[in-house]
User: What shape does this take?
Amino acid sequence: MVKLKGKSRKILIIDDEKIISDMLSDYFEMEGYRVMVASSGMEGLARAKEFKPDLITLDLDMTGMDGFDVLNDLKRCDFTRDIPVLILSVDERKSSRQKVLEMGAQEYLIKFLSLNMLTEKVKKYLRCNLLRLCFIK
Assistant: This one.
């Protein structure tokens, strides 16, 4: 279990593709993280407030509320604005990447990249968030 002062680090996966969210969930749990999955944007926003994750992975192309809207709401809310968000998308357009980075996402990763690379990014932003929290307190 990946821990911070006695508690497991938590990751929220927001993705409407069950195969993807199950794969990520299984992988992160094997790596020692506590994981919660949301299958829609609205569910993701609710779970982010309830679960208080240390990091969120977010798909852009979802039915209903898309990832752009979810990211916008996450970054506007006092409870979630400082949670690192990694975008996982099949959209390879530079304009989408630039837009979400300007909106406050930490990374824009193309889906189906290596899980090792994803794990490196997750650990990087969990460490950065931990350091930020230590300086705030």
About this structure: The chain has five helices and seven strands.
